[in-house]
């Protein structure tokens, strides 16, 4: 993907999946532009060059299932933005590169965005180590880098002024928001099961004090290596007096994990609460998951269409192409990563809002874009923010939003409780706005 | 080798060094960045080549040396705020030390066993990095602090200083390996590769020389890892994983094992191959696989090796 | 300096209980050409392999230049002054003749170029210095082996079947070479070709079934009834050469 | 959980791992034993077995039992055929040179893995087990009224897991019978003992090599089919399985089938039991270092006899 846009259009005969989608995005935008009033088209024509957003995609490696849905959501969001006239009257184009879920490649991909494919900004990527590996390059390249990672690394101050996370909440706020529900509704004695690496430690380090603060107690912490493929041997470490099991696993073996947990407990299980990460992109009707009936999950955004869903949520789901069960409308077995991918949609809308606030014209305005986003605070729920009302903290570059707790009912996830963003806040750990660009 | 052709060889290598220097000022910014990266990684390949290409030690665990350099330098910066040069030296030293320990054990084996033993040791090193997550930040890795990315007041994260530091390191490694293969020590390494028993019966202590070669190889690989961390600012466990051991093998095989220029050519070629392949397919590692199989089948000598075979027999 | 450069006492080697060498007492005098002969499977190669250090003896002692070398590795013995040429050619096939010999000479330091030129020309390969060793004919590779031995300026040169595969004319040259060498070094020759043995050797040791059968001058060995009978059954025609 | 039931559970889990590992490692060991090459792509054949099981299941769309039996037959055949193809087109042309073969099979590893990613996708997909009922296990207890049985919390296994153990035992016994009693097995062993001699006796060594390579891959695929109802088929699942098989084959003594099976049981069981005492990552570090040291100091393996 090193050629210029004009070449790209003429060379469409060799169009490839990612390229084809970019083209579709463009075509949709062009069609929409034709229907708009003349002045708008004129404005668009003035700077015909589209705004280019580099999208680092987990297309291969362990993050691949997420990458696919992140891309679908992003393409859908841009189709909407373009149909509504683009950004500052310019069309927006997604330039997708595989980062291999690998930090080295992700850093290279950022270089490619900045200097080769002439992207205005970079965006994307979930896995923490990939973000942490790539972020220093973003700062060196002075390339705004909007991540959709849910890691705490942004708000912890580890990264830099050019890296922001305005579209998805971080694990620290998610976890602390769960503690009251856990202790008040499910039980006081909690056993945690989490992957034995950074993402799991975020859960361990944040949940334990939050549970204590809420009057409960973490009775055991069981770390499981991320490469593990069989889990039954870890379950005996769960103390007998456990009232709640809190689980969060990622990677290809998540289904095995949940299944074996069910087989372990049989009919006499404690209350079970999990982060949906354990089952993201996994069909709840998969064999072995029957036992999850009646257990609870954190969801970033509900996977199943809720009865009381507002119209903008329905519109969002239709645009992305997921059915009432959160699976692809074209393939019911292709389950989405609904709890995370909304972050791409919202981030792209924030980029639009930021660029318009900064009157973004060219890459010279990148700094102004960062400052414009830093100045944002409240983000009302609506078509741009279908997951719910949020507040952005410009100092920590981190957004705070609602958290959903859903119960498996008749094989579907039904929202049982919603935690508003006010209850997920925590003291600032960094002030990026004091750092130099 | 007669003096005249040696002169041409030196001219070729110095010429490459000069061209790379000049490219800093003319290349578009993306390719300049790529080349800086390739030069630093080519140093890793040069290190690997000394063990594999010249001494015949087919290791499947060199990522542990690269990782030792990366973490040795990065941790000094993260925990002690050490500046770039001493941090780099610590990293390089850590790699040399690790190579000494691993070599003392692994060199008791040969051939297939050596491959597997090095693979296992590297795996243990990788897991150790994960295990001591409190210090190493485990799987996430960490960003190298700015203070460690400064050399004599120059910010190494800037485009030109980074390129030039990479160039200095690469040039030093390239010319060192050119010198080494002509030096008596290097020639004995080649003799060991060709026929270890015969070399031993010429009175050479082959065990110690292999160990020496592995330590040099490990130190150079670590020098590359340390520089990589300091220049590009990120230290992570994936660099110590099995795939990066395979990469070194791949680059050297592709460029030509046992040639001085091969590691650079292989690294450069493979980088652009993958860079272009990602535009065509998500499964770009497929290209790596096809290249590996193709090389073993059709060009075991690699690119520079084929040049030597067909065109320039005295190319070292 | 003792007259005996190398000796063995009670040297034995067995493989899984199979006796390959048994209780060999052997002495090699300085500046002699000593031939080691015996029928196939008599244990000649096992014996020299222990001398040079490629095999560990099961029991017994090897003394070289007055020093017990039984526990030393091969390279240490070579450094002490032994040199060994392989029975099956074992040159560095991908390297040039020059580099092959230079590798042998370089360990000693000194004027390597002159040493290489001299060693190659002594075996008659002076004109082939630039050729790749693996491209040489088999006979020439054997000569290259000898040149590598010479370049080490050894106190003791062990030649394992050096004339195997050589043409008649080359054998003649080889004989002349060895005669010339006798003044500067000691030579232990393992050889099948009886004409070479009889012409070159000052003394001969005969091995049979892993034990010393006889020892003496060529004349004495030639007349020994024991040796005759040992060779009659197995390789009697060898003795007729 | 009390220590006794915990240990029993760890042993049961270890036995399942050991069963699958023994099958897979036997394939690796067979290939190394007869052909003297290390097949680094072996883990990918295991993965292909699992993926094929999913493919067969979804194409047939019959009942769980029929699907599973079909997968058990078809997947090893398909994977074995692919391996034979790889042998004929690649390994044969390398003359089975040990080092070049390793490099080529590393290439093969990436090719298979990435093709699986392209064709099958990045998801972990499940296959329904033919039967799967939870079996709670009792434990003895000395209570006031003497010895009593009770069912501890969590002490259970499933009928399918027990089936995997039994199936592996049967398959390994069959393999042993095949190698020792059948003519084909005899030919394989003759080739293993001395390839040149075998050629001299008119054994078509090349064909034997191709079939052995195919059979080794088929064993890995079989292991993959058996495991997929417990785990799921995923395109990256071959890596860890390969590493474990390496460990087993090395500990068991390269090329010795009996040693391989013993080592698989040892490694599988200890994996379950070590996790009782150590943190899992530390256990893995210790295990890998141990394997490296075994190769360094006892290259014939723990159970092998030193070759002269």
Automatic annotation (TrEMBL), chain A:
It comes from the Bacteria. InterPro entries: BCAA_transport (IPR051010), Leu-bd (IPR028081), Leu_Ile_Val-bd (IPR000709), Peripla_BP_I (IPR028082), TAT_signal (IPR006311), TAT_signal_bac_arc (IPR019546). The keyword Transport applies. Gene3D superfamilies: 3.40.50.2300. Keywords: Amino-acid transport, Signal, Transport. Residues 50-411 form the Leucine-binding protein domain. The keyword Iron-sulfur does not apply. Pfam families: Peripla_BP_6. PANTHER family: LEUCINE-SPECIFIC-BINDING PROTEIN, PERIPLASMIC BINDING PROTEIN OF ABC TRANSPORTER FOR NATURAL AMINO ACIDS. Belongs to the leucine-binding protein family. NCBIfam families: TAT_signal_seq. This is ABC transporter substrate-binding protein. It comes from Pseudooceanicola sediminis.
Automatic annotation (TrEMBL), chain B:
Keywords: Cell membrane, Membrane, Transmembrane, Transmembrane helix. InterPro entries: ABC_transp_permease, LivM-like. Pfam families: BPD_transp_2. It is found in: Cell membrane. CDD domains: TM_PBP1_LivM_like. One of its GO terms (cellular component) is plasma membrane. GO terms for molecular function: branched-chain amino acid transmembrane transporter activity. The chain crosses the membrane at residues 6-27, 34-54, 87-106, 112-132, 163-181, 211-235, 247-271, 283-304. Its main location: membrane. It is a multi-pass membrane protein. PANTHER family: ABC TRANSPORTER ATP-BINDING PROTEIN, HIGH-AFFINITY BRANCHED-CHAIN AMINO ACID TRANSPORT SYSTEM PERMEASE. This is Branched-chain amino acid ABC transporter permease. It comes from Pseudooceanicola sediminis.
From TrEMBL, chain C:
Keywords: ATP-binding, Nucleotide-binding, Transport. Residues 6-234 form the ABC transporter domain. SMART domains: AAA. Pfam families: ABC_tran (PF00005). InterPro entries: AAA+_ATPase, ABC_AA/LPS_Transport, ABC_transporter-like_ATP-bd, P-loop_NTPase. PROSITE patterns: ABC_TRANSPORTER_2 (PS50893). The keyword Nucleotide-binding applies. One of its GO terms (molecular function) is ATP binding. SUPFAM superfamilies: P-loop containing nucleoside triphosphate hydrolases. CDD domains: ABC_Mj1267_LivG_branched (cd03219). GO terms for cellular component: plasma membrane. It comes from the Bacteria. PANTHER family: ABC TRANSPORTER ATP-BINDING PROTEIN, CONSERVED COMPONENT OF ABC TRANSPORTER FOR NATURAL AMINO ACIDS-RELATED. This is ABC transporter ATP-binding protein. It comes from Pseudooceanicola sediminis. The lineage of its organism: Bacteria, Pseudomonadati, Pseudomonadota, Alphaproteobacteria, Rhodobacterales.
Automatic annotation (TrEMBL), chain D:
PANTHER family: ABC TRANSPORTER ATP-BINDING PROTEIN (PTHR11795:SF442), BRANCHED-CHAIN AMINO ACID TRANSPORT SYSTEM PERMEASE PROTEIN LIVH (PTHR11795). It comes from Pseudooceanicola sediminis. It holds the Pfam family BPD_transp_2. The keyword Nucleotide-binding does not apply. InterPro entries: ABC_transp_permease, BCAA_transport_permease. GO terms for cellular component: plasma membrane. The keyword Membrane applies. Keywords: Amino-acid transport, Cell membrane, Membrane, Transmembrane, Transmembrane helix, Transport. GO terms for molecular function: transmembrane transporter activity. It is found in: Cell membrane. Belongs to the binding-protein-dependent transport system permease family. LivHM subfamily. The chain crosses the membrane at residues 6-33, 45-66, 72-90, 102-121, 160-179, 208-230, 242-267, 274-297. It is a multi-pass membrane protein. GO terms for biological process: amino acid transport. This is Branched-chain amino acid ABC transporter permease.
